[in-house]
Write a structure and sequence with these properties.
Layout: H1 2-24, E1 32-39, E2 42-43, E3 52-55, E4 60-64, E5 66-69, E6 72-75, E7 88-97, E8 100-106, E9 111-120, E10 123-128, E11 131-137
Antiparallel strand pairs: 1-2, 1-3, 1-11, 3-4, 4-7, 5-6, 7-8, 8-9, 9-10, 10-11
C-alpha cells in the first residue's frame, strides 16, 4: 500500500513539474515564418506570396521581399521598374499585449513602426497605408 501511495505521489509531482515547465517554456505564437496572403480581402499573386517574415525568439525578425513589375516577379532590389527595394533585412519586434506585436524597422532613410494583430495563431493582420494585409503562418 505504501508503494502504491509513493508511486501515486511521485506521479502527481512529476505531472505538476511537467505541466509547469511546459507552460514556462511555451513559445510565443508569433515565432516562425509567415507569408503574405491577402490585401484588402483579395488573395495576392503567387509572386507576392513569396514575401516572408520570420520572427525569432530573440525579438528580431527578418523579411524577404518580392515585388511585381510588368508581369514579372522580382526579389527586392532586382526590380527594374525604377523603384528600388531592399530584398532582405532584419529588425526587431516586441509584444505589446495579448496577440498584439510591434515591429520596428529602419532603412537608410526611414524608421518605421508597424503593429501586427494576431487574429488566431495562424494569421497576422496589419493596416498598412490604408490597406488590410493578412500574413499566414507557414
Amino acid at each position: 500500500m505504501k508503494k502504491i501511495f509513493l508511486f501515486l505521489t511521485l506521479g502527481v509531482l512529476t505531472s505538476s513539474v511537467l505541466v509547469s515547465c511546459s507552460k514556462d517554456d511555451e513559445q510565443d505564437p508569433i515565432i516562425g515564418t509567415w507569408y503574405l496572403y491577402s490585401k484588402d480581402n483579395i488573395e495576392v499573386s503567387d509572386c507576392l506570396k513569396k514575401n516572408e517574415i520570420t520572427f525569432f525568439e530573440d525579438n528580431t525578425f527578418s523579411n524577404v521581399y518580392y515585388g511585381e513589375y510588368d508581369g514579372e516577379c522580382f526579389k527586392g532590389k532586382e526590380n527594374v521598374g525604377g523603384e528600388r527595394w531592399k530584398d532582405e533585412w532584419k529588425a526587431e519586434w516586441e509584444k505589446e499585449g495579448e496577440k498584439k506585436y510591434k515591429v520596428i524597422t529602419e532603412t537608410d532613410s526611414l524608421k518605421e513602426e508597424v503593429v501586427f494583430k494576431m487574429n488566431n495563431n495562424k494569421e497576422l493582420s496589419i493596416i498598412l497605408e490604408g490597406s488590410k494585409v493578412i500574413w499566414k503562418k507557414k
